[in-house]
């Protein structure tokens, strides 16, 4: 366990570097984590590493006391019973609605067919967005590269996360709408939030000072 | 041969049953000694009866029709059925009434978490005993049960569902803005709460209070240095804190952001935590309006421990020893 006696869920992938840098600044030694790319559990440092979308699962169940994950993950898993403690600021991305450049085929589908087909890894966020804006959409959930879906005619449009827009551009897609700006968040298990209140508050203090 | 049982239910075999029985027997003894007579109610109630309690936080799992076409529901907790029982069977009895139960309840689940739809609750209802003395008695009986079953490292979170609302009144936040703030707090989203509070453009002191107070938890000392509108909001908890016997007080963590999940809660609410489990083992609170909805207005308080979770925490503590 870490110096504070907390087990921390750290996301692998795009948010990992920023998360480890942050933990270093908070006085939690991450050298061992950086040195072992395949190891998942670091008892000494109190760190467990996992996919960002698994972080709320571990934290909700109490397998980790606190965790770092993207707001996009929290929005998609909005029914998770975890505390959202702090906006960590890094890992800024935008959830966008995008489609093939040129004439907007989604708008045409909506007008002529009454519904547009949308590929996404975020079915709940997408569905909420279309409900809020009063449009009918057929959500197609995909696991891999979402950009492929409108290029092959699977769908007219996609809802996806983009940091710089490079992948979208390279695949000939343009952003039509911005749905939400997301950043990395610090979350906590509701029981740990009480039983380890002093350690979590100390961490929050260090965060504000960092 | 495999004959499936409904999802969210399970069989209990002798080894497990023996241990569950030890827990419920200990609870029975404590209830009996504290003067809480045991009651049983039907597993099925009319849907209209349970609806009086509201269903948020205790979504019924099973609905069915009887031969007359009436909609029946398997009870989602024991508090609402006991409120009905008190109003009809103890219409003229002199309060306070002390009742206990060990009974199964049935709730809808959020998928993919291995949550049960059927679970065993052991609890009490103390009816006709106002705050803070009634709440202190319920908390004491609850700690006595947890001690009696042998749980050692448990703590009890104590909050007040009216605290933040009083604070909002004190800061003169009304209407839609108030609902937005409460929604963030129910969602446990302190980032969203801070954003919504700041967007209101209140005076600095009010902004600071509305963001900081619901994140406070700790011993009775946190009730003392609140300042401003929060001073009055914590009055209820200060009164309760003063009445707790030392063996209960040492277990209590006051949590000024705790809201409880159930529709009928009105004042103090409790949750039981153990380091061996990531979810609460039991909960309780005041429900001063519920009996009135059944025509016998009486202040009341109660708690329910989930026996299976208590069992998991007990085995977890044993393993950690």
What is this entry, summarized?
Chain A contains ten helices and eleven strands. With 210 residues, chain A is an alpha/beta fold. Chain A is elongated, with a radius of gyration of 19 Å.
Model description:
The complex is a heterodimer of chains A (210) and B (321). Chain A has two domains: 111 residues, D-Maltodextrin-Binding Protein, domain 2; 90 residues, D-Maltodextrin-Binding Protein, domain 2 (3-Layer(aba) Sandwich). In chain A, strand 2 and strand 3 form a beta hairpin. Helices cover 36% and strands 28% of the residues of chain A. By secondary structure, chain B is of the alpha+beta class. Chain B has a domain of 182 residues: 2-Layer Sandwich (BirA Bifunctional Protein, domain 2). Chain B is built from 13 helices and twelve strands. In chain B, helix 1 runs antiparallel to helix 4 and helix 6 runs antiparallel to helix 7. The longest helix of chain B is centred in the first third of the chain and has 20 residues. The radius of gyration of chain B is 20 Å and the shape is globular. Chains A and B meet through strand 5 and helix 9 of A and helix 7 and strand 8 of B.
């Amino acid at each position: 366990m870490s110096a504070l006696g907390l087990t921390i869920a750290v996301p692998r992938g795009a948010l990992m570097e920023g998360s480890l840098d942050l933990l270093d600044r908070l006085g939690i030694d991450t050298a061992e984590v950086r040195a072992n790319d395949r190891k998942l559990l670091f008892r000494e440092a109190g760190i467990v590493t996992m996919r960002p979308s698994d972080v709320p699962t571990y934290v909700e169940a109490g397998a980790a006391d606190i965790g770092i994950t993207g707001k996009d993950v929290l929005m998609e898993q909005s029914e998770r019973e975890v505390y959202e403690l702090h906006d960590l600021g890094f890992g800024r991305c935008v959830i966008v609605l995008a489609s093939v450049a040129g004439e907007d085929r989604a708008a045409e589908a909506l007008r002529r067919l009454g519904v547009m087909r949308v590929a996404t890894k975020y079915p709940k966020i997408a569905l909420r967005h279309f409900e809020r804006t009063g449009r009918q959409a057929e959500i197609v959930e995909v696991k891999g590269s979402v950009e492929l879906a409108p290029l092959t005619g699977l769908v007219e449009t996609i809802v996806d996360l983009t940091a710089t827009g490079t992948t979208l551009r390279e695949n000939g897609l343009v952003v039509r709408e911005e749905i939400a700006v997301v950043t990395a968040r610090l979350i906590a298990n509701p029981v740990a939030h009480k039983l380890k209140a002093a350690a979590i508050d100390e961490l929050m203090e260090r965060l504000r000072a960092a | 041969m495999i004959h499936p049982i409904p999802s969210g239910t399970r069989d209990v075999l002798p080894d497990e049953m023996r241990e569950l029985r030890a827990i419920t027997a200990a609870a029975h003894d404590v209830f009996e000694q504290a003067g809480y007579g045991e009651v049983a109610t039907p597993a099925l109630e009319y849907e209209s009866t349970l609806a009086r309690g509201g269903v948020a936080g205790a979504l019924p799992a099973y609905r069915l029709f009887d031969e007359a076409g009436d909609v029946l529901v398997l009870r989602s907790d024991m508090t609402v059925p006991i409120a009905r029982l008190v109003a009809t069977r103890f219409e003229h009895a002199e309060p306070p009434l002390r009742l206990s139960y060990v009974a199964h309840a049935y709730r809808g689940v959020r998928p993919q978490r291995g949550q049960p739809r059927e679970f065993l609750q052991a609890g009490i209802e103390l009816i006709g005993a106002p705050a803070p003395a009634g709440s202190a008695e319920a908390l004491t009986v609850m700690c006595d049960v947890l001690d009696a079953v042998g749980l050692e490292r448990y703590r009890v979170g104590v909050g007040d569902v009216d605290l933040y609302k009083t604070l909002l009144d004190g800061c003169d936040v009304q209407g839609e803005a108030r609902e937005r703030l409460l929604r963030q707090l129910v969602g446990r989203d302190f980032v969203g709460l801070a954003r919504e509070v700041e967007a209101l453009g209140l005076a600095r002191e009010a902004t600071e209070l509305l963001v900081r107070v619901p994140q406070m938890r700790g011993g009775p000392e946190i009730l003392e240095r609140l300042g401003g509108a929060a001073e009055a909001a914590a009055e209820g908890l200060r009164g309760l804190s003063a009445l707790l016997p030392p063996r209960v007080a040492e277990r209590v963590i006051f949590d000024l952001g705790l809201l409880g999940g159930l529709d009928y809660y009105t004042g103090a609410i409790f949750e039981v935590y153990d380091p061996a489990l990531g979810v609460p083992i039991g909960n309780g609170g005041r429900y001063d309006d519920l009996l009135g909805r059944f025509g016998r207005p009486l202040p009341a308080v109660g708690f329910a421990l989930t026996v299976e979770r208590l069992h998991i925490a007990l085995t977890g503590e044993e393993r950690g020893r």
